[in-house]
Each structure stands twice: as structure tokens, then as C-alpha cells.
Amino acid sequence: MSADAAIQVRGLEKSYQDLHVLRGVDFDVAPGTIFALLGSNGAGKTTVVRILSTLLKQDAGTATVIDFDTAAQPQKVRESISLTGQFAAVDEILSGRENLVLVAQLRHLQNPGRIADDLLARFSLTEAGGRRAATYSGGMRRRLDIAMSLIGNPPVIFLDEPTSGLDPQARIEVWQTVKQLAANGTTVLLTTQYLDEAEQLADRIAILHRGRIIVNGTLAELKALLPAGKVEYVEKQPTLEEVFLAITGDDGSAGAATDSTAITDK
């Protein structure tokens, strides 16, 4: 495995009877970065994550996480990762703090209460920590879910469709959380079908289509695949996201429509 890769995938293949889901997938993920696996429903994104998290065995190829082979050393891989699925796996009967304490106890960690309080503060959930998780909004529940997955400080975290089904504000909350993870040194591999999510979050983006990676690069590298933009004078209207944030007051930088101005097509 490359010394510069926290995750390395080579020639990954997986089939279900006559359905070829993965047809030779290759990519590397550098430590402390956010890597987005972008693709439509059925492209094979979740299958890749299930193989990397040792929940599924590949038919061919290799996958290593923090130098551990997923097929030959599954226990070592599990000790190095955390997985957050498409739906928040929180106990709604328990409070947010109790959920965190429970996971810390299951991991046999010392001072589970302190661990829970630290994570509540880190994810801006301190005030809600004593409330039942059933009362949380979608964004709060997802943040709690991600906080639970970080107990034990895993160096790698997999986020499978982390904002699926969330409202716009909840999606922004999760985006901020994911950015914070990478800023703190965690390697993040996320799957998404949302173009704007990959654009907002990822250091590198790989597009998975019909079981193959058809392009892999930074956002700038992907944009360079298209013809250069041309400068035109257009009237810039506010996006729906800017309108939403301006009305709700969640982002003071969002404003009203601007006058005609020069912009460069991206």
C-alpha cells in the first residue's frame, strides 16, 4: 500500500449472480482528506463501502485500510474504522448523552460520561444532551449519529449517503460536521448522489458509473475536462439556497439579488 494512502482499492469486483455491481474499481484516499464517491442509485457506492468496512467480501481485487487488508485482516480493519449508514442509528428512547455513554461503555472506554460531554460540545449538542433523541431534528440526529461513530477516535470514517432525506438546513449542519472531521485529521470517505454535496465537501471526487470509476480528481481537475468558460454579462439572481438562508437567518452572508455583474462560467 502506498505510504500516502489511508485507503487503497485495486481491481475491486463484485457480482450478485448475473448482476456485475463492481467491474474493477481503483482509487486511493489520502490521510486526513474527504473523498467523495459520487454516483447515481445502483452505481455500486454502498457495495464499495460494505467491502471496505468488512461487511461484504469482494469477488476479486484488494482493499486495504490503514495498511490492513479487508479480506485477510478484517478485525484490524474494524478496529480502525467507523461506519455511518444512510439512516441514523440512534436509540430514540435514550437521551443524546445516554446514547453516547452507552457506546463508550460498549467499547470499554474509561470515563464514558466525560467522552459523551466532550462530543456533545464538539457537535453543538450540549443543550440538547439531556433530551430524548426522538425529539431531535433530522440534522441533530445525524450529528449525534456521527458523534457516536467517533467514540474511540477511529482514523477512518465511512459516511454512506450522510444527508439522504434531510432538509436543506440539516444538510448544511452535516456538511459543517464532515468538514470539521477532516480538519481534525480524520480520513472521510463519503458516498453521495448529490453533485453539490461532493462539490462542497470533497478534496477529491471519483465518479462511479456502472461499476467502474470513470473519472477521479480534484474539483478543479474535473472542471478542466470541459471547455474553458467564457466571460459574459448576465444578471445574477439569488439561488434558492441563498433565499432560504437569508429568510431563515442562518447565514448572514446570504443576500438579495444583485445588480448586473460580470461572472465567469464554471
Written overview of the protein:
32% of the residues lie in helices and 27% in strands. With 266 residues, the protein is α/β, with parallel strands linked by helices. The protein has a domain at 228-266. The strands form 3 sheets. A 6-stranded mixed beta sheet has the order 6-7-8-3-9-10, with helices on both faces. A 4-stranded antiparallel beta sheet has the order 2-1-4-5, covered by helices on one side. A two-stranded antiparallel ribbon has the order 11-12. A hairpin with a 2-residue loop joins strand 1 (7-16) and strand 2. The longest helix is centred in the middle third of the chain and has 16 residues, at 168-183.
Task: Summarize the model shown.
This protein is α/β, with parallel strands linked by helices and about 270 residues long. It is built from nine helices and twelve strands.
User: Sheet with the most strands?
Assistant: 6 strands, mixed
Kindly, what is the distance between the CA atoms of the first and last residues, rounded to a whole number of angstroms? Answer: 36 Å
Strand order of the largest sheet: 6-7-8-3-9-10
Structural class: alpha/beta
Specify the number of helices.
Answer: 9
Q: Mean of residue pLDDT?
A: 86
Number of beta-strand segments: 12
What portion of residues belong to β-strands?
25-35%
Instruction: Note the run of SSEs as H and E.
Output: EEEHEEHEHHHEHEHEEHEHE
Helicity level: 25-40%
Query: What kind of assembly state do the chains in view correspond to?
Result: single chain
CA radius of gyration is: 20 Å
Secondary structure layout plus pairing:
Elements: E1 7-16, E2 19-29, E3 34-38, H1 45-52, E4 60-65, E5 68-69, H2 74-80, E6 81-84, H3 96-106, H4 112-122, H5 138-149, E7 156-160, H6 168-183, E8 187-192, H7 195-201, E9 204-209, E10 212-217, H8 219-223, E11 231-235, H9 240-248, E12 260-264
Parallel strand pairs: 3-8, 3-9, 6-7, 7-8
Antiparallel strand pairs: 1-2, 1-4, 4-5, 9-10, 11-12
Helix pairs in contact: 3-4, 5-6
